Amino acid sequence: MTNGNDAMARLSAIRLGLVAILFLPGEPFTQIAYEIEQNSPFNQTIIVAYAENNIGYIPTALALQQGGYEVGPGKWSFLEAGAENILIAEALQLLKELYTN
User: What does the radius of gyration of the chain's CA atoms come to, in whole angstroms?
Assistant: First the structure.
């Protein structure tokens, strides 16, 4: 179920042999992209930011605790704690499905 405060995000990916290109909305912090790359089933995973749509910065839990303009709240970042885990889980599920099909 969604509400007016939800950030709707599309993720997509394409496969080129043993390489995957993953398109993420917004700008994930480096640690998030690295975790996806390290846990991807592909030999190489390329992450493209600001693809599909834009949900602003995607900060880590640590970054949210530390604060700063990248974590908002504001028009550039409005995600709450836990958003990184959802994004990582969904990205890895998409990559797994792409790899096995």
Answer: 14
Tell me whether strands 19-23 and 12-16 are parallel, antiparallel or unpaired: antiparallel
pLDDT tens track of the chain, all 101 residues? 556 667 788 999 999 999 999 999 999 999 999 999 999 999 999 999 999 788 889 999 998 889 887 877 677 777 888 899 999 999 999 999 999 98
Tell me how far apart the alpha carbons of residues 84 and 61 are, in angstroms, rounded to a whole number.
8
d(CA 92, CA 32): 11
Token digits of residue 66: 């530390």
Strand partners, 22: 13, 47
Return the DSSP state at 79. Answer: P
